[in-house]
């Protein structure tokens, strides 16, 4: 389990280093601790990008990667409200014979954050 988490953190460290807004070295501080775990610097840069942060939380298992609709038992998808960019929900997009299921759930439902 720890090995998998370390691999995920390393992958995201590489992604962050490729981003234009991340300084290569910030006062010579590293993005990871000596043991390879994320530090405050890593988490600060990671959470500057909402989508990257949410994907990270899904990859490490703190948010669900898949949720089924309670109404129609189909897989739901991530949805953001245009008026509130930081509000991400699970939303059912099923359309059958003109009927549309518009059920939604918080991304926190059933996760560690609930």
Provide an overview of this structure.
The chain is of the alpha+beta class and 114 residues long. It has helices spanning 2-18, 40-46, 50-59; strands at 77-81, 84-91, 95-96, 99-100, 104-106. The chain has a three-stranded antiparallel β-sheet, with no helix packed on it. The mean pLDDT is 78.
Task: Describe the SSE topology.
Blueprint: H1 2-18, H2 40-46, H3 50-59, E1 77-81, E2 84-91, E3 95-96, E4 99-100, E5 104-106
Antiparallel strand pairs: 1-2, 2-5, 3-4
List keywords for this structure.
elongated, 114 residues, 30% helix, 2 domains, two-stranded antiparallel sheet, three-stranded antiparallel beta sheet, 5 strands, alpha+beta
Structure, briefly:
The protein has helices at residues 2-18, 40-46, 50-59, and strands spanning 77-81, 84-91, 95-96, 99-100, 104-106. It is α+β, with helices and mostly antiparallel strands.
